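> example.struct
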């Protein structure tokens, strides 16, 4: 007689029990793996975000410290810039100042004994007018830089020529122009032979004594008028009017 197993198939144990398998198990395992991967990625992203936020906070602190340090040094930077500007201005003014004292000293050395001056005007620019100065204004206007305007007399025309040559020996002179060198008209002078009227600039006390007007130009001298005016330094320089000196008669 053949034995019959009356236990339902789902409750059987052992080798004869059917295997419990199907697509549902694989779906469940895949879902668990996906959840694990998502949680791991979320944790990693959260860690990266936390590190970035910490780095940003550190950079913000360093930036604030740098700004505070820069603001504390701003006064020193402004002072340095102001100091450099003033040094440059002083250097520019020092270079642009014309040494009239040296020119007058050299003029006194080259002035010959047979010529004498009645008026002398020293100006740094052609547009400057000096009270009491005489001479050819157009000739002075042709000299853009500092110049001397000399008016005087000499023993004769040869002495005027020698004086013009001597003026060229003054350091810095670029050209010497003679506006006029004229003898008095015969019979026009009624001054005594022994002297001249001290209130007049007429120095031709003899018929052979010429009166000259000379302009001595220093074209190469660096005298920027704009820089002088900006710093409150006048564009004009010294003006001298010597007293008349009697020449040889």
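> example.seq
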């Amino acid at each position: 007689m053949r034995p019959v197993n009356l236990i339902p198939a789902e409750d059987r144990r052992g080798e004869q029990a059917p295997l419990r398998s199907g697509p549902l198990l694989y779906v469940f395992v895949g879902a668990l793996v996906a959840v694990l991967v998502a949680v791991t990625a979320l944790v990693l992203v959260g860690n990266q975000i936390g590190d970035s936020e910490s780095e940003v906070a550190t950079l913000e602190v360093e930036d604030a410290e740098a700004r505070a340090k820069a603001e504390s040094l701003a006064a020193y930077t402004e002072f340095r810039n102001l100091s450099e500007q003033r040094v440059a201005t002083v250097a520019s003014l020092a270079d642009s100042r014309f040494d009239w004292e040296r020119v007058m000293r050299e003029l006194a050395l080259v002035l010959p004994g047979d010529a004498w001056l009645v008026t002398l005007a020293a100006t740094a620019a052609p547009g400057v007018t000096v009270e009491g100065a005489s001479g050819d204004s157009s000739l002075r206007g042709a000299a853009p830089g500092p110049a001397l305007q000399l008016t005087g007399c000499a023993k004769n025309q040869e002495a005027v020529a020698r004086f013009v040559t001597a003026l060229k020996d003054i350091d810095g002179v670029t050209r010497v122009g003679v506006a006029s060198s004229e003898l008095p008209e015969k019979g026009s002078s009624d001054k005594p032979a022994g002297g001249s009227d001290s209130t007049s600039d007429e120095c031709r006390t003899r018929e052979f004594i010429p009166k000259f007007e000379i302009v001595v130009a220093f074209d190469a001298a660096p005298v920027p008028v704009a820089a002088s005016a900006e710093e409150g330094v006048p564009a004009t320089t010294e003006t001298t009017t010597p007293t008349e000196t009697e020449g040889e008669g």
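> remarks
The helical segments are 23-96, 100-110, 137-141, 157-167, 225-230.
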